[in-house]
Amino acid sequence: MYSFTFTKKSEKLFRKQDALFKKRLVNKLTLLKTVDDIFQYLTRLENMEPYTHRLRIWDMRFLLMLNPDDENNFYILKFGKRWDIYK
Hints:
Elements: E1 3-6, H1 8-15, H2 19-34, E2 43-44, E3 53-57, E4 60-66, E5 73-81, H3 82-85
Parallel strand pairs: 1-5
Antiparallel strand pairs: 2-3, 3-4, 4-5
């Protein structure tokens, strides 16, 4: 079973979002926690340290870091609109 952990910065940003966005994110993360192969839903990122994977939900992109000590835990480091997130 996979788990997702917000960093303090991303949690603060999450709290500022509207209710619809929060509901979509919680539903998607709940679904992803139960899948057998989560990597079919995540895109691997190269040359974007410390980010290791990307998750797309609607028009938002989430930049994740796989915990090196626990292969089933991802840190949500940053998220935003597609056109702003990679800057």
